[in-house]
Amino acid sequence: MRILGIDPGSETTGWGVIEGDRRRYGLVEYGTVKARPRERFAARLLKISEGVEALLARFQPDVCAVEESFFAVNPKTALQLGHVRGVILLAAERAGVEIAEYSPRLVKQTVVGYGAAEKHQVQEMVRVLLSLKEPPHPSDAADALALAITHFHHAGLPARPKAAARARLEDLLAANPRRRAPR
Predict the structure, then answer these.
(1) Which of 67, 93, 124, 134 is catalytic?
(2) Is residue 175, in this structure, part of any structural domain at all?
């Protein structure tokens, strides 16, 4: 499974690609899509959209994991981030890629083990989990890799069907009839 994680930002949008099987995963590549802060906001959105479309075409991921919106003190910042998320989601939908969204708190909880972790803690754990020599920089790219890792841990593995689990339990109980649970 190949996962493209994206950390939306109106000036710097981080991205990271990991690939793995049922047991382990590894880094493919990471980076950022940068827009100049003095550009018109619509021009920045276009640059981000084109950058994400190019990433989707280049890496052909199975899933695009995107950070959910979060509460921001400044309503203008929150609205701009919503627009950035919108162009990212639109690009992934146009490419026919499955979209998964994760809250910043869940990402930190999954990667660091603490939902209020600091940026440098996320960077360091991403380094450890991907066996990198140095933490990924900038932090936007590390956050994107953390999103991809979160998807791998939460949805990357197919859930074991309840029927299969029940059948396995029945087999175990049949092998030891004295401990058979009452129905």
Answers:
(1) 67
(2) no
Number of domains in the chain: 1
Catalytic site includes residue 143 = no
Copy the structure tokens of residue 30.
Answer: 């990471």
* 171 within a domain of the structure (yes/no): no
- Say whether pTM exceeds 0.85: no
User: Per the residue annotation, which of 50, 53, 98, 140 is the catalytic one?
Assistant: 140
Active site residue 67: yes
**CA-to-CA distance for 34 and 11, rounded, in angstroms?**
6
- Integer Cα distance of 159 and 161 in angstroms: 6
Distances (CA, A) of 10 to 14, 35, 71: 10, 7, 16
Let me know if residue 166 belongs to a domain: no
Token digits for 109? 């909880």
Amino acid symbol at 30: Y
Residue with tokens 């950058």: 51
> In this predicted model, what pLDDT tens digit does every residue of 81-129 receive, in sequence order?
999 999 999 999 999 999 999 999 999 999 999 988 999 999 999 999 9
Range of the domain at 81: 2-158
CATH number at residue 83: 3.30.420.10
The verdict on whether 171 is a catalytic residue reads no
